[in-house]
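Q: I'm a student working through a structural biology exercise. My instructor gave each of us a protein and asked us to get a predicted structure, then write a short paragraph describing it. Mine is DUF4145 domain-containing protein. I'm not confident about reading structure output yet, so if you can add a plain explanation after the tokens, that would really help. Here is the sequence I was given:
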Amino acid sequence: MVESNFEFLVGTPYYKRLKTAEDLVPIDSSLTGSLLRKVLEAFLYQVYNDKEIEFPEKENYKNKARPYSGASLLHQDPFKKVCPDRIIKKLWNCYNLGNDASHPGEFIEEIEITKEEACFMLEWTHDYWVWYLRDTGTPNLKGLKFDKNKIPTKTKAQLTEEEYSKLLLNKDEVTHQLNNDIEEVKKKNDELALENAALKKSNENLESLIKKSEVVYESAGLTEQIGLVWGRVYINFKYRNKDYFAVKYFKDEAGATEKHQILEGRFETSWLYTYFNRQHPKLAVPLVEQGEYDHLDLLNKDTVYYKYKHKYGTPSILIKQLKVDIGNEMDIKTEYLASLLGTDVLNKKFNYSGSYYKSNGVNYRDQLIIKGNDAGFDVAADLLVVMINPGGSKALGSIDYDERAFLDEVKNDFVECEPDVTQYQISRLMLHQNWRKAIVINLFDICDANSKDVIARYVDGSKIKLENLQESIFKDERRRELDKIFEQLSDKAPILIGWGTNKDLLRIKESVYDKVLVPTARKILGDKKEDYQYYHPWPREEHNETKRLNWVSKIIKQLK
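A: Happy to help. First, here is the predicted structure for DUF4145 domain-containing protein. I'll explain a few features afterward.
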């Protein structure tokens, strides 16, 4: 290998780029300057990503938004906080000289960079790379100095035609690569800017909703007992500009049992209100609390509990407890809304990894783990989630999954994956419950976002396609693989079902539920529609926004 000041970068794309710039010094030092400027600009974009520095929004230039230039990025406060001032000064000088070589001034046809200036630019770039790699933890760089003697001295006249052609070819190649890198990063940053703008708008809307999430009590009322049906105390209230009512009463179920309901609307318009013939609507909540209406009979003298009226049946007792019930349930809704404010919070608290494999060219995932960043390596799982299939889940980066047989107990190592809206929904539940680890498995391992195709793969009308069921971890032949997952759960970890409500898969769901999940004797959670049918945590259609908002709240209530 020919000696170079940048040998410590061998194995990275930047070695060839900087070595080419070094080789150009005796041939055309202005080309060295121009190339180093491009190297610097491309690397600045990379640093903003690697150092987790937030890329700035587009700057205004003559009333037009445009991406930040390399020079602008040098002077952003986030970059100044991580890069020493001495390095920034060197980069600024390097960028200015390179800019002169790349873009001649308005009245100057060409600005030539001298060999001495080109050498300085190489030295400044060298110092920057040494600082960066040390800062990111690369060892064995101590005492690494720039050596001008390593810069080639052969002029164009001293090179063979083949050597000169190869050098120009290298220059064109690395310039093309740098241009592509810069455009690719700019494109990604534009996409990210659009996502951030959408997220910002969503956050603003949600923050507005949360500000409106205060419960406003509008009126109270009560009904007196009729027949064997005890009377009710109710409150009409508003939450997020929507009408709700809450009803409180006691019921004789081999003992006086306290009950309450919270529903949308107004109690006076419900069928139950009209059932009572002695009604007292539009009462002031404070007056009911103060006992102004305790003389009215929510339970009559013929009731065995009447002598305990002041324990069970006075309006003032019930309305105070009813306000507590309202506060608890609405707090859950508000907490959930707050948890929706940006997935960045969830990304900082949790990491997402999956075990992916391939069979006959088709991608599969047998497990997903959602884990708190503060959780230990072998922490027991607090939750097991059962879904229909992994959807379009994929690993981060361009990973080619290894081929595995469905009956292999161990598929592949876990790799970081891209979280989706469903995984974020589960993370919100975990955040509320202070859970540190959840395992997600599926009825079927296949990674396919088209639910119709998934269903057609396993059922044909009333017929189950048994030949494809090996793709399910619940297949009898894969029982040992499933048992290993159950062994990772904590003693109290519940099972959460979110496999959807499609009836074509009912026989499969019924079998899994009755033969596998129920025998574990674990608590089973989920937003249940009917037997064996549980709503997905994040229904796709936009009109299901209310279901999305309420899903976490419903699961939290089941855990209380």
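A: Here are two points you could use in your paragraph. The chain has three domains: 7-195, 215-329, 343-559. The first strand starts at residue 59 and ends at 61. It's a good idea to check both against the output above yourself.
Q: Great, thank you!
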